[in-house]
């Protein structure tokens, strides 16, 4: 039976690397995969998934209005579907992906952030946490050595940003992963006193 998987973590944990490696494993065995990435995430170019260690691959860019069930149904026989930056899915798109697993019998592996820089769930992540058959935490570490579970957004001067839009595409230049304690120290400096 096909399943819907959600692998989640903070920034810089290697989620895209794991996605690209898993897709490669299927393709190496002669099995076809389809990859998706949020259309507005153009860090590697529109419709391109890239990892920090240099792996990359073409992907289908998805937008909030896209029907991913119909898109995958139209692809014909595939062994597995992959979604990078899954936190940017809509709730309806998560349901569409669940239907891909349930009705088309295609495993769907999604990778993304669980929370934003304010510690709030993304809509896509919230739906995936509720609907995915299997949840997998991809671990990374804080500067103190503990497991990093939160992310801080920084401005160009390296100052912590505490307010703003939930979605702002960026990488190492903009986001730093921390354990909850150090995230709280940075986001709520008066609470630590």
Topology:
Blueprint: E1 4-9, H1 15-28, E2 33-38, E3 48-50, E4 56-58, E5 60-62, H2 68-74, E6 80-84, H3 91-103, E7 108-113, H4 123-131, E8 134-137, E9 150-154, E10 160-161, E11 175-178, H5 180-187
Parallel strand pairs: 1-7, 1-8, 2-5, 2-6, 6-7
Antiparallel strand pairs: 3-4, 9-10, 9-11
| Average residue pLDDT | 88
Number of strands: 11
Computed structural class: alpha/beta
Largest sheet descriptor: 6 strands, parallel
Continuous helix count: 5
Question: What share of residues are in beta strands?
Answer: 15-25%
Could you name the CATH homologous superfamily?
P-loop containing nucleotide triphosphate hydrolases
CATH topology grouping: Rossmann fold
Shape type? elongated
Distance between the termini: 52 Å
- Which percent range fits the helix content? 25-40%
CATH class categorisation:
Alpha Beta
What is the number of domains?
1
Provide the spatial order of strands within the biggest beta sheet.
5-2-6-7-1-8
Q: Can you tell me the residue ranges where pLDDT is under 50 for at least 5 consecutive residues? A: none
Architecture (CATH level 2) name: 3-Layer(aba) Sandwich
